[in-house]
Amino acid sequence: MSTPTPTLTPFAITSRGTLPARATKVSVAGLNFYYGRAQALNNISVDIPKQMVMAFVGPSGCGKTTFLRTLNRMNDVIPGTRVEGNVSIDEEDIYAPGADVVELRRKVGMVFQKSNPFPKTIFDNVAYGLKINRLTSGKTELEGRVEEALKDAALWSEVKDRLKSSALGLSGGQQQQLCIARALAIRPEVILMDEPASALDPIATSKIEELIVDLKKHYTIVIVTHNMQQAARVSDLTAFFLLGKLIEVNSTEKMFIAPDEKLTEDYITGRFG
Amino acid sequence: MEVHRHLDEELDELRATVLRLGGEAEAALVRAMQALTERDTATAREVLEHDDEIDQLEVEVDRQCVDIFALRQPAARDLRFVMSVAKMAPVLERIADHACNIARAAVDLNIEPELKDHDQLRRMGKIASSMLSGALDAFTKKDAAAAREVIQRDAEINDLYNEIFHDLIEMMVNEPATATRDARLLFVAKHLERIGDYVTDICELTVYMAEAAVIKHQH
To answer: How much is the pLDDT for A39?
Structure first.
């Protein structure tokens, strides 16, 4: 079977030139999402390129978290929900009948607003996904993967001497880094982050943001944030959601200097409503 | 929306301060040219005495811009506005400095016999002040088209400068006794020519503010 030609995502011209064209990792087309009879997402189409950070911004209740959770089918666990349209990762429809949801969630990791380490040791937190998915063949490989994930999450040097201590003894920022390490351990390709720094102080936030920028070298990152400056700092592309509709997707630079849509400009300048 | 109401108030205040600075620069230019062409030394001295207030207005614009950047993190049209104003203020202050230089030349020239009619310089001064006034209007109305029209007028100033340059050099050669006064007038012409360039800068900033288009170094 021949490999399909990847779609290239076009980018807006910015004052600094054009962002590099990258193959599309996640492609969303005509996506509608319903909680019972209430429609939460309305005809969303967007391509998320590989190895870039795309931020989704918008007021509370606009559908950005719902959208994020459609990318790894996390909404499936909510009764009464319904999805229409197409979400593809590497050109494979994730909602196709028979799609492997477990494999999808291995490929698409998620980090939540509030860090949620398990009440286990630091080591066991990171090793958890590897163990239950039987992704390693022995103790040495398991330890190697845990170390690799903790290093990628920029936490290794701080915890390497206390891997057997409880994860709950870490600071808030470290706990969030640990959750990122836990997501990285199973080697995902896409990382979804839902307000990953909203509960952290400025220093811990800055560390998480630096981490996001570093991680994009190897991963495709989709982040939902209320913090406009955070979107400006970490993302290459920004998408603005309003009332379940995707109003504008543009390079982050263009979005924050001269957005195309008046609704976006009103939101970004705080004159919304 | 309370926070954003305050931002709007701060932006309005900034706009008022920079327009005051623009108005003062324009008045300094008009009065300096009046001092020169009407041999009015008292007016020239007033222009010079007033310069400190203009400098203070520039400092005030700086302060307001820094406050807004630091405390409000403006974006999109607000960012372009504050950015443009921050870059416009030193340009306006520099225009006022050139007006002061013209006023100084007037003080020196007025104690010597009148050289000749300053018709070309008068015309140059009128074009410069009308360009400045047009540039400030375009800025106030966020009118990029009007700003672009003002930029076109810089060519008139440049042409007049070249004419005056040649006339004054010719006078220096033909009547060496007037060379010092000719040189002073030549500097006045150069100041006016530079003001034309500065007004062009202001218009480019207005185009950026209104359209997010960078047009500098393109004409």
So the answer is: 96
Q: A197-230: per-residue pLDDT in tens?
A: 988 888 889 989 999 999 999 999 999 998 899 9
Best A264, A269, A271, A272 member to test B by mutation, with max B CBs in 10 Å, is: A269
**pLDDT over threshold 70, residue B214:** yes
Domains of chain B: 2-211 (1.20.58.220)
Q: Of A182, A186, A155, nearest to A171 (Cα)? A: A155
Hey, is the C-beta of A228 within 8 angstroms of any chain B C-beta?
yes
* Sequence-distant (≥ 6) Cβ neighbours of residue A94 within 8 angstroms: A71, A72, A73, A87, A88, A104
The parent domain of residue A68 ranges over: 23-268
Q: Do A256 and B75 touch (CB under 8 A)?
A: yes
Q: How far apart are CA B105 and CA B179, in angstroms?
A: 14
Residue A272: per-residue pLDDT: 74
* CATH number of the domain to which A258 belongs: 3.40.50.300
What is the pLDDT at residue A271? Answer: 84
Residue A106 falls inside a structural domain:
yes
Locate the chain B residue with the closest alpha carbon to A254.
B76
Domain presence at residue A80: yes
Give the mutation candidate from A14, A227, A250, A257 for the B interface (greatest B CB count, under 10 A). A257
- B-chain CB neighbours of A232 within 8 Å are 75
What DSSP character marks residue A168?
G
Question: Helix B144-152 vs helix B154-174: angle between axes, to the nearest 10 degrees?
Answer: 20
Closest chain B CA to residue A263: B76
Note the pLDDT tens digit of each residue in B120-153: 999 999 999 999 999 999 999 999 999 999 999 9
Indicate whether A96 belongs to any domain: yes
A96 class by beta-carbon count within 10 Å (0-12 exposed, 13-18 middle, 19+ buried): exposed
For residue A273, the chain B residue with the least C-alpha distance is B1
H or E stretch at A4: none
Please state the domain count of chain A. Answer: 1
* ipTM here: 0.78
Q: Is residue A17, in this structure, part of any structural domain at all? A: no
* Chain B, nearest residue to A265 by Cα: B76
Per CB-CB distance under 8 Å, the chain B contacts of A268 are 75-76
